[in-house]
From TrEMBL:
<protein>
    <recommendedName>
        <fullName>superoxide dismutase</fullName>
        <ecNumber>1.15.1.1</ecNumber>
    </recommendedName>
</protein>
<comment type="similarity">
    <text>Belongs to the Cu-Zn superoxide dismutase family.</text>
</comment>
<dbReference type="InterPro" id="IPR024134">
    <property type="entry name" value="SOD_Cu/Zn_/chaperone"/>
</dbReference>
<dbReference type="InterPro" id="IPR036423">
    <property type="entry name" value="SOD-like_Cu/Zn_dom_sf"/>
</dbReference>
<keyword id="KW-0049">Antioxidant</keyword>
<dbReference type="InterPro" id="IPR018152">
    <property type="entry name" value="SOD_Cu/Zn_BS"/>
</dbReference>
<keyword id="KW-0186">Copper</keyword>
<dbReference type="Pfam" id="PF00080">
    <property type="entry name" value="Sod_Cu"/>
</dbReference>
<dbReference type="GO" id="GO:0005507">
    <property type="term" value="F:copper ion binding"/>
</dbReference>
<feature type="region of interest" description="Disordered">
    <location>
        <begin position="67"/>
        <end position="90"/>
    </location>
</feature>
<dbReference type="InterPro" id="IPR001424">
    <property type="entry name" value="SOD_Cu_Zn_dom"/>
</dbReference>
<feature type="domain" description="Superoxide dismutase copper/zinc binding">
    <location>
        <begin position="14"/>
        <end position="87"/>
    </location>
</feature>
<keyword id="KW-0862">Zinc</keyword>
<dbReference type="GO" id="GO:0004784">
    <property type="term" value="F:superoxide dismutase activity"/>
</dbReference>
């Protein structure tokens, strides 16, 4: 099993924790909580390195593919699509 955790925090009062879990050679499960995001769609992607203190760097993209939605045939592994935040969000 492989596990990773991301702790979100910003100067815009957005916070949360995201967990990535993969069993052996299976698919990866992503779970977690976010706080302070405005209602609507928000892009959800993994960057090449975890430290973004000097700004966001390119998305995780080992295969060198074009940017695209997860359902697109030609898309990179770091682009996980959108997260919808409802009007009742914290």
């Amino acid at each position: 099993m492989v596990n990773a955790m991301v702790v979100l925090g910003s100067n815009e009062s957005v916070s949360g924790t995201i967990y990535f879990t993969q069993e052996a050679d299976g698919s990866t499960t992503v779970t977690g909580n976010t706080y302070g995001l405005k209602p609507g769609l928000h892009g959800f992607h993994v960057h090449a390195l975890g430290d973004t203190t000097n700004g966001c760097i390119p998305h995780f993209n080992l295969a060198g593919k074009e940017y695209g939605a997860p359902e697109d045939e030609n898309q990179h592994a770091g682009d996980l699509g959108n997260v919808t935040i409802g009007d009742d969000a914290l």
